[in-house]
Amino acid sequence: MYSPLRHMDSIFRKSKPIHLTFFVTKRCNSKCPFCFYLKSKEGTDTKEFISKAPSPSPSPSGGEGTDSPLLRGVQGCVSPPLRGGDEGEGDLCGSTNDRINKYGELSLDEIEKISCSMGNLLWLAFSGGEIYLRDDLLEISKIFYKNNKPAIMLYPTNGLLPELIKDRTEQILNHCKKSVIAVKLSIDGLYGSHDAIRNTQGSFDKTMQTYHMLEGFYKYPNFELGVNTVFCSENQDSMDGIIDFVRGLKNIKTHTISLVRGNLTDGNYKKVDHNKYLHAIARLEENLKSRVSSIYRFKGARIKAAQDILQRLLIHRTMLEQRRLIPCYAGRLNLVLSESGDVYPCEILTESFGNVRDYEYDIKKIIRDEKARKIVGSITNNQCFCTHECYFMTNILFNPGLYPTLFKEYMQLRFC
After folding, report:
1. Sequence-distant (≥ 6) Cβ neighbours of residue 50 within 8 angstroms
2. What pTM, to 2 d.p., does this model score?
3. CA-to-CA distance for 28 and 313, rounded, in angstroms?
4. Are 49 and 38 in contact (CB under 8 A)?
5. 57: how many CB neighbours lie within 10 A of its CB?
6. For residue 294, how far is the Cα from the chain centroid?
7. CA dist 51 to 78, 103, 198, 207, 322, Å?
8. Considering only CA atoms, which of 373, 316, 363, 374 is closest in space to residue 335?
9. Separation of alpha carbons 173 and 400, rounded Å
10. Which long-range contacts link 383-386 to residues 24+ away (Cβ below 8 Å)?
11. Which residues of the chain are under the pLDDT cut of 70?
């Protein structure tokens, strides 16, 4: 397995990106109201990127399907149908060339050039949109695996394409054997509540089908399966039930909570109670330290779990104090690449470093450009703050000033 220890020099020299988030597509087969990505694409007709919604998920008691109070009044927002079929077929997939021409997505040749311009990666996170809608996701993974040898490759998914996700994940596992392949399923509520929060009927059942298809993949030593929950105003009172449910799922090795963020169409989703968030993260910490919940299997997983605990506490403080608490390495250790080639220091800031198509697909040229240097300078000078978990991860793991606190959390996990 590729060792994370290869990147220890970045603790002292933060001069090259080791964490890349690649938004491989903005196409999606769900319509989550708290998704900031489609909202942030100015001038985008989001309906063009939404596919067919499945049928509703009933609760065990039959009381929370289409009659759910959360679903009432949002039926007009449920995803419109594709002109093709289900399971990823139709306009949103199409042929690779047609998709590239229509949506402006980077081609495999372009991705190869970008990948070759970068060094080894610690963390490669695919994002979107629904990443499994790219029919060349395996080929994209193989490119980065060959050129950048990421220690961890993250595949978040809404789980709406069970068979496709299963087949494509297994292909990736068979080709990228020295990288940890971590699949994260989205569960933002239980049964009909999940469907309602995501404006996609039947999504909970589909996600659970995907879970059952993937849980058997632990025969692969490099496979990890987790769950992520977006914490927002609509589910903050249901977190105990969600946490208990996920804890009961066999072979789920991590449950993370992402605080709702970004510029949303409906800002009410961001009206969260910081005490309810604190209660939820305390539950996750308690489950880890009492060993009720599992952790990842890869080497260094306990450090990652300790970092998650510290990270959530810092995010809670950031919510309260509305300021940056620790240095941010966005644009130095972290980069974001959009499906059309724009490069950003992070997912929150809207000012781009530039587009790879204007820099001969060379990431080094972009980050050395004067425009990029000015943006990074503004970040370094504390002109912004956020609660984005991915950046807290890097900001903690590569900040020696936090090592005593991180070590304390690690020892409590180890000996509790």
Report:
1. 28, 29, 30, 31, 79, 80
2. 0.88
3. 32
4. yes
5. 26
6. 20
7. 10, 15, 13, 16, 37
8. 363
9. 34
10. 384/324, 384/328, 384/348, 384/349, 385/318, 385/322, 385/323, 385/324, 385/325, 385/328, 386/261, 386/318, 386/346, 386/348
11. 36-101, 416
